[in-house]
Design goal:
By secondary structure, the chain is of the alpha+beta class. It has one domain (4-294). Helix content is 31%, strand content 27%. It is built from ten helices and nine strands. The chain has helices at 7-18, 42-48, 53-58, 61-64, 69-77, 100-108, 110-130, 218-221, 262-275, 290-294, and strands at residues 87-94, 131-137, 142-148, 165-173, 177-193, 201-206, 231-239, 242-249, 252-260. An eight-stranded antiparallel β-barrel has the order 1-2-3-5-6-7-8-9.
Length: 297
């Protein structure tokens, strides 16, 4: 039986979803303007406005996607890497106003900018149909992506019938048959410097040398590697079971994404709210994490 202290947030989220709208999370942000010089120092953001465990518990994959890019960045900067995940995590990605690929449409403006924005919306829709999240192999420090089995993709995948598959967590057809996905685009996992916030490490998802990983398939896995788009992801933990990520092509920021494991989130919620403590596999930096400051620890 879940604790009643979690019910108000859950009920509010349910009601908003039922109405077809999700409100942005009610967490504080330092003031900023449109120009780069107005963006606040990230260390100052965490020092003046630390996010408590209660604040972090109000964040969800749905409401984080309602933030603009500066707000997403301020949230990310107040997180630590946490533990390297293990197992399957449902994924969603989003283009936030003012950053990444969406920034291009804003800079271009007019009809051209509107056209780019339309194409990004279409890309987001198609991408969500195909990409369902990531499966982490913590002990091996490896990862694979869950890609929905679509007939069109079989034309560009080597020997699709022999591809390994996995169940998509929480995805059941008619409540009975578990939906599944291909395991594609392998990557290596390690701790490394964040391209946004160098004060502490993030968990890096590196596709550069994915051709060295067992199970690699030239088509389509090369697309993410060093001979393709040179994709590099980094993630930090919002709270147990929930990670916020950033995807780069080379060193160019593209988009944000979230990863969520419901079982981990539910089992660790109580302890996290009380102590704010988690296992840290990566260097948490010299600045004390805001969630511990907020608890007076």
């Amino acid at each position: 039986m879940p604790s009643t202290k979690f019910l108000p947030v859950a009920v509010i989220a349910l009601l908003l979803t039922a109405c077809g709208e999700v409100a942005p999370p009610d967490v504080p942000f330092l003031a900023y303007g449109d120009d780069y010089q107005s963006k606040p120092d990230l260390a100052r953001v965490e020092y003046e406005l630390p996010l408590s465990p209660d604040d972090l518990m109000t964040l969800t994959p749905e409401n984080v996607a309602r933030l603009n890019q500066e707000q997403v960045d301020q949230v990310y900067a107040r997180l630590t890497a946490g533990p390297v995940p293990d197992g399957a995590y449902n994924g969603t990605f989003f283009f936030a106003d003012g950053g990444g690929a969406k920034r291009l449409s804003e800079v271009m403006g007019g009809i051209k900018g509107l056209a780019v924005r339309f194409k990004l919306a279409k890309l987001e829709t198609v991408g969500q149909m195909l990409w369902k999240g990531k499966v982490f192999y913590r002990d091996q420090r490896l990862l694979r992506n869950m890609i929905q089995d679509r007939k069109l993709l079989k034309l560009v995948v080597d020997d699709p019938d022999a591809l390994p598959k996995t169940d998509i967590p929480g995805r059941k057809i008619f409540g009975l048959i578990q939906d599944d996905a291909w395991l594609l685009f392998p990557a290596k996992l390690y701790c490394g410097q964040s391209l946004l916030d160098s004060r502490r490490e993030s968990i890096i998802i590196d596709y550069a040398y994915n051709d060295e990983i067992d199970g690699y398939r030239e088509r389509p896995d090369f697309l993410a590697g060093r001979r393709g788009l040179r994709i590099r992801d980094e993630i930090r933990m919002v709270r147990p079971g929930f990670y916020l990520g950033r995807a780069y092509m080379g060193h160019v920021f593209l988009l944000n994404f979230t990863l969520y494991n419901e079982a981990v989130a539910e089992s660790a919620a109580g302890s996290f709210m009380q102590t704010g403590e988690v296992a840290e596999d990566c260097w948490p930096g010299s600045q004390k994490p805001g969630r511990l400051v907020a608890l007076g620890r």
